Amino acid sequence: QVQLVESGGGLVQAGGSLRLSCAASGTSSGGNAMAWYRQSPGKQRELVAGITSGGSTNYADSVKGRFTIARDNTKRTVYLQMNSLKPEDTAVYYCKLGSGPIYWGQGTQVTVSS
């Protein structure tokens, strides 16, 4: 059974940083693309950043230059380093594994105060 467990969320002031982690179990995640999504109240879930099995990355325009996605296949973990956080980054952040089938983590809350 595939499980994704996110951690690292919390409350931070604007301009601060957080590092999210997503650990995968029950699968060899190294051969799968992984991504971070986020969802704010009343909004659709949106892609924040993605990383392929080969390490290629892509980012939403709103986070380019501030967020960095990385993966450690030996630890089956994907990270999201978030710098220069803004109040509009406040959301529940979800980790996604694969493209078919797809697995989601339970989410971790990130709150950025102004």
Which tags fit this structure?
7-stranded mixed β-sheet; 4-stranded antiparallel β-sheet
Structure report:
This protein is mostly beta strands and 114 residues long. It is built from no helices and 11 strands. Strands 2, 4, 5, 6, 9, 10 and 11 form a 7-stranded mixed β-sheet that branches. The protein has a 4-stranded antiparallel β-sheet with strand order 1-3-8-7, with no helix packed on it.
- Per DSSP E runs of 2 or more residues, the count of β-strands stands at 11
End-to-end Cα distance, whole Å, is 40 Å
Helix content range: under 10%
**How many DSSP helices?**
0
What oligomeric state best describes the polypeptide chains here? single chain
Helix and strand arrangement:
Elements: E1 3-7, E2 10-13, E3 18-25, E4 34-39, E5 46-51, E6 57-59, E7 67-72, E8 77-82, E9 91-97, E10 103-104, E11 108-113
Parallel strand pairs: 2-11
Antiparallel strand pairs: 1-3, 3-8, 4-5, 4-9, 5-6, 7-8, 9-10, 9-11
Structure, briefly:
This protein is mainly β. It has no helices and 11 strands. A hairpin with a 5-residue loop joins strand 9 (91-97) and strand 10 (103-104).
